[in-house]
């Protein structure tokens, strides 16, 4: 589904081993080729340490969310005291790391990229265990995640300054870009590796040091990356990874701590707003990659078969649990019936729900009960207001408590919750439209603006709609936009800052100007 597919980025052999649907998590862990990747303690100042109060939390497999074999591991729950130690060690490390050359940091990042390739199969299995996505998607995520290290390895030696002519004949203005300092990184569970590498790659390329809190649902992938960073030769203190069950306490600390100069967060808009208010006391530089409500528009001149494929990829990737997943599917009234029937037919012929490590699985479970509740409430609200279930519509408790059928709803309108809120689950709501003006206005009728998609064969329409949609990223005639070269980020309440791409460097640097006088 990703343009950075495993086949064209990472050459590691796809050595999938099939598991029975109900194999315990520990059996899968014990099958990993590189057991050193399995880490359950925090990584501070180059050392693996338990939490200062010895507390731990459970990491569970969402595909087996009840019964034997569910628990994957007990992981140290690092306290705010541990975080302060990590922040101080990152500050100590920064004094040397900021002086290293871009070429040196490029080599470190390239080492890490290669190590991820070598361990791609094991890293993918860890992702399946803790996130639930199918193995092929997890394998693709490792490729996608590692591509940020490759990308930023290539950017690290190219963090250029500038020379600006002065108004004074005897002066010149020199502009340099310097690393901002210690960065706090807070990431979600839906891409346990890629949301970290997209931030860590840019930070390390510029000479920043980092303190990383992975989501408590998916700390094992993050700790495996910390181990690989150690192997890649990152100096002690330059990368610290601290799992914790105290998200609110750690978030507040990171925002209020004066040593941390930047916080980068990926997650929901509500938590983003809270972090922004907590950061006001230190005027912290922030990057916010927040929630979306992506429109997907099929115009009457679209190639319908391609639009169906694009919609399936964009809506149901990771069972609808990505921030750029389609949330509202607008279809022109003249092709609505044909599109709806082709979409439901293709889904019913190709989808197999199940454990991500089982043979043939195309879609895995939701992450937890909170997500299931949102999916159920959106379906129930929409059907109570007149929407029709065209496909799916039910839980699949026979597979596990977190499984839900891929669902298509017809006749969705603006009054329904699903139109106005991000479902973050496998429900595609179809909405009919008549004119370009109407659909652009409907698509923009939301407080958030992360991604948008549309299919049209008319080049004039392509430019017009691309200009009119209020989003940070657009897929025109494609439902797959993610790659390291893309400036990733949103507008409106989807946040600010751009990750990946050449712009990704900007958020981790500050501009310093030197007026050089007396040059006559
Ligand atoms: N824009 C993006 O790139 C992107 C990527 C993934 C997810 N998301 C958004 O995230 C949401 C789904 O994920 P979620 O429900 O787990 O989001 P969430 O905001 O609840 O959690 C995201 C992360 O923030 C942490 N967190 C929770 N409360 C916190 C607090 N008070 N202080 C600091 N950290 C805190 C969580 O532990 C987790 O690691 C969706 O809205 C989705 O669009 C956005
Ligand atoms: O969910 C957020 C990130 C999705 C992506 O990078 O493709």
From TrEMBL:
InterPro entries in UniProt: Ald_DH/histidinol_DH, Ald_DH_C, Ald_DH_CS_CYS, Ald_DH_CS_GLU, Ald_DH_N, Aldehyde_DH_dom, Aldehyde_DH_Superfamily, Succ_semiAld_DH
Keyword Iron-sulfur: no
Pfam family, one: Aldedh
Active site: 289
UniProt-listed Enzyme Commission number(s): 1.2.1.16
GO BP annotation list: gamma-aminobutyric acid catabolic process
Stretches assigned to the Aldehyde dehydrogenase domain: 48-514
Matching Gene3D superfamilies: Aldehyde Dehydrogenase, Chain A, domain 1 (3.40.605.10), Aldehyde Dehydrogenase, Chain A, domain 2 (3.40.309.10)
GO cellular component: cytoplasm
Domain of life: Eukaryota
GO molecular function: succinate-semialdehyde dehydrogenase (NAD+) activity; succinate-semialdehyde dehydrogenase (NADP+) activity
Top class in the EC scheme: oxidoreductase
Pathway in which the depicted protein is active: Amino-acid degradation; 4-aminobutanoate degradation
Keywords: Oxidoreductase
Reaction(s) catalysed by this chain's protein: succinate semialdehyde + NADP(+) + H2O = succinate + NADPH + 2 H(+); succinate semialdehyde + NAD(+) + H2O = succinate + NADH + 2 H(+)
Family: Belongs to the aldehyde dehydrogenase family.
NCBIfam families: SSADH
Name this protein carries in UniProt: Succinate-semialdehyde dehydrogenase
Organism the protein comes from: Debaryomyces hansenii (strain ATCC 36239 / CBS 767 / BCRC 21394 / JCM 1990 / NBRC 0083 / IGC 2968) (Yeast)
